[in-house]
Amino acid sequence: MRERTKTGIKNFDDIVGGGIPQGNQVALAGGPGAGKTLFSFEYLYHNAKAGEVSLMFSLEETSDMIVENAKAAFPEFKDIDDLISQNKLIIYGSEKTGQYVQRDTDGGSYSFNELVSGISSIASSYKASNLVVDSITVIKLMIKDKLTYRQLTMDLINGLRSQNITSLMTIELNTATREDIQFKPEFFMYDGIISLYLEGGSNNRVPILEVIKMRGTDHSFRTYPYEIKGDGIAVLSLPQIKD
């Protein structure tokens, strides 16, 4: 039986049979405001508290913004600064990751080849066990050729898999509702897919979590409401919500 990486998110690990199988590369997909970055941050935070090196690469927000937003959302996480100073929780914000993104000589496209090698080498140098890339969608928006994007993503997935790192990669969906979600072919390169969306009538929109797939473990196929509180995200073990 494969070892598990616990997220520490209340009730979530039970949904995936005790935790994400170690070394899985998981897509965390959701619409705007679903809490993808906070979910990812909490996963890293709990593993950093457990003594494992946890690393976040953000292509959208600076390190200071990520930390400030996490502290505002989770005021009971009192030791964020201590974990950062101990190099257990390492944040590479956009002010650092920008060096790995190069505009091509024609000025019309971007190259992310250095990003893949940069993420892999930095993760190796810190001996990171857990990693987040926030978000893969930024790369997709900047790469015009679909095949190039898929190959780059596969290279990243394979590089992290070879180091037995467990990762979450956030993906922005163009809809917040379940019935309108369309999973692209590249989603199925990942070992797991976790989807965050809204469900219910227009006057009763409830955030919902669903595990679409997770290789290496049995998992629940139910949908679960969740809430973001000061002491962390809580997945609620309640019946599936209907309109």
TrEMBL record:
<keyword id="KW-0067">ATP-binding</keyword>
<keyword id="KW-0547">Nucleotide-binding</keyword>
<dbReference type="InterPro" id="IPR027417">
    <property type="entry name" value="P-loop_NTPase"/>
</dbReference>
<dbReference type="Pfam" id="PF06745">
    <property type="entry name" value="ATPase"/>
</dbReference>
<protein>
    <submittedName>
        <fullName>RecA-superfamily ATPase</fullName>
    </submittedName>
</protein>
<dbReference type="InterPro" id="IPR010624">
    <property type="entry name" value="KaiC_dom"/>
</dbReference>
<feature type="domain" description="KaiC">
    <location>
        <begin position="3"/>
        <end position="243"/>
    </location>
</feature>
<dbReference type="GO" id="GO:0005524">
    <property type="term" value="F:ATP binding"/>
</dbReference>
<dbReference type="InterPro" id="IPR014774">
    <property type="entry name" value="KaiC-like_dom"/>
</dbReference>
